[in-house]
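Researcher: I'd like a structural prediction for the single chain below. Treat it as a standalone chain; there are no partners to consider.
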Amino acid sequence: MLEEYCQYTHQYLLDKGFTQEVLKEYQVGYSYDTCDPLYDRVTFGWRDIDDGSLVAIAGRDVTDKQEAKYKTKKGGDKSSTFFNAYRVKNMDNEEVIVVEDEKSVIRLAQFGFKNAIALGNNDLGDRKWELRQLGSKAVLCFDNDDKGVEGRNKAIKKLMPLMPVEVIKLEEYKDVADIESKDIFVEFYKKRDKL
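Model: Treating it as a single chain, here is the predicted structure.
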């Protein structure tokens, strides 16, 4: 019964090569409530970096028919934390991989890279000190588009005085979530630029 439920609610992600196991591990949900602002969206819980309490729920449209592709439920503020930060903080990693969206974090976890966090956009903002709590080195893997490059360059300037920074370039892929093969990502990871 659970398998059928997951199959229906997460078909969008299953079709892109995500496994039911990783979606369950990262508590990916789905909003059926027509009164909910996240209706008909896959949902991701954002948790406080310190105590793991839920601070926001983000939803991604899976129909490609809604006006906004991404939406955050009101009442939550994710601007001072990162998606998956609470888990990463408790792993005691030397490095932390920084991506833009939740799906990329979950893809990396499926590949065995569980030390990844998401910004929720392409802007690090004022979260450099929070990032410094999660690891001693930042590995930036932003989206492969103009906004991603711009956001990455801004993040580099903010982080370089604080910690070593490395950059993964995805070449023909838009983001990590689009990569379905672990071997392909590992090759990009091996070729990362050390600044």
